[in-house]
């Protein structure tokens, strides 16, 4: 097969691995779908490809490892019109290409710039007797956001969405609190990182129910973390395993 038309099929993503059986393709039409990203080395999987139509999809960024080999080989034979491309610094490689399949914005339009992350909200959220820390950060590209505690490694991390949803350049990370200590949020992207620290003890004192629940959980964790508590925990686990095995 040398031509494959998959237009108007409501596709949302395409991977190079899915097209490996079609290595003889010369023309691939993926237009008029809902494709938000393509993944993999299409240039090596489809070595005979002469034309690629991705017009009228939902592409917002063109990652260099995937797209540069395609653009350099096919040039204007790649159709990308009708997408919502976001020209930040991740797309700067395009400005060095010739015979591009689409017009590029001028430098005066603020194109090919990225913005370091900022944390707009780092706070404690109380839901009944459960406590969470919440961190929301924005930047361009949207940052990774992670929570850690004093002396501990990263406890939770949120990756940015693979799409920007028309300018939504923020990431939110929520973590259930297990002890009364400081929690630190770290937000990072290609051009920088920023931190914010939350004192959970101060924040939950305003909620008596949450305060009592947190004290109980913290005390239980402190007991488990002692040598005697650790041994007792292991013994309990062993007993449960024995009972499950023999009943």
Textual characterization of the structure:
The chain is of the alpha/beta class and 247 residues long. The chain has two domains: 3-109, Ribonuclease Inhibitor (Leucine-rich repeat, LRR (right-handed beta-alpha superhelix), Alpha-Beta Horseshoe); 115-227, Immunoglobulin-like, CATH 2.60.40.10. The protein contains five helices and 13 strands. The strands form four sheets. It has a four-stranded parallel beta sheet. β12 (182-189) and β13 (192-199) form a beta hairpin. 24% of the residues are buried.
In short:
This protein has helices spanning 42-45, 64-74, 200-204, 208-224, 227-246, and strands at 3-5, 13-15, 27-29, 37-39, 51-53, 78-79, 115-127, 130-140, 144-149, 154-158, 170-176, 182-189, 192-199. It is an alpha/beta fold.
């Amino acid at each position: 097969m040398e031509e494959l038309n998959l237009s108007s099929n409501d596709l949302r993503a395409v991977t190079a691995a899915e097209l490996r059986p079609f290595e003889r393709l010369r023309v691939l039409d993926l237009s008029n779908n809902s494709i938000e990203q393509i993944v993999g080395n299409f240039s090596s999987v489809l070595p005979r490809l002469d034309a690629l139509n991705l017009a009228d999809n939902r592409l917002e960024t063109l990652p260099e490892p995937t797209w540069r080999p395609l653009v350099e080989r096919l040039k204007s034979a790649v159709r990308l019109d009708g997408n919502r491309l976001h020209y930040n610094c991740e797309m700067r490689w395009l400005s060095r290409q010739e015979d591009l399949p689409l017009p590029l914005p001028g430098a005066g339009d603020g194109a090919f710039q990225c913005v370091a992350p900022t944390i707009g909200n780092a706070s404690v959220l109380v839901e009944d007797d459960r406590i969470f820390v919440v961190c929301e950060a924005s930047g361009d590209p949207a940052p990774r956001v992670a929570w850690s505690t004093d002396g501990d490694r990263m406890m939770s991390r949120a990756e940015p969405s693979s799409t920007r949803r028309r300018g939504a350049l923020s990431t939110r990370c929520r973590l259930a609190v297990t002890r009364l200590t400081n929690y630190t949020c770290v937000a990072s992207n290609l051009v920088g990182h920023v931190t914010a620290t939350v004192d959970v003890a101060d924040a939950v004192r305003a909620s008596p129910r949450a305060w009592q629940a947190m004290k109980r959980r913290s005390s239980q964790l402190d007991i488990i973390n002692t040598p005697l508590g650790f041994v007792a925990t292991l013994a309990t686990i062993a007993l449960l395993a024995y009972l499950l095995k023999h009943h």
